[in-house]
Amino acid sequence: MGKPSRELLKGRKYDTLIARLVDRLGVDEAAALWVRAERRLDGMLAQSRPLPEGEKLHVEVFVLPTCAIYFELIDAFGRDEAFQMVDDFMAEYSANASKAFRRIVALPGGRGLFMRAFGKVVGLAFGERQGFANEMHECTPNRIAYDVLACPYRRASAQMGAPEICQFFCRNDEICYGNLDGIRFVRTGTLAKGADRCDFVIERQ
Question: What is d(CA 66, CA 172) in angstroms, rounded to the nearest whole number?
């Protein structure tokens, strides 16, 4: 096992969600809900099958914490409202993350730097060792095109009984890369929404 649940469920990424819970429930009940999410995550981590180190990062740091929070929100607010709350919080988090990419492409030579880094990250952080199955079609300084045929986010969220939350992780890409000056990001389908692959095209304009 990696980090304990308390470590996994703290940090600035959760600030807006916690603030919303405090508004709805009050300080004490919001804190109690968060403790229950930590306990639920402890159980998930204890029961999850052993994973390769690369895949563990994606599953234990991103998928399982999101599932634990989602299930606690369902208990508190019902499935529809819980879905919307997770949707909102993850979109806000992705929008903040996208600011870093916008700063990079705004630098002199930033678009080329972004493309080179993106091509490397696909293999290093989203490759076979991390539980992905990819089919690379093109990887040049101006255009990267590849398909994701299998994905640990889809696999783990389905195993946890919450396949519907996988689409939020997919949308992170669209928010992060979809509004960068001089960079075009295209994807026509995702595994999370029933396509047979997630097709990525990212290119300099």
Answer: 14
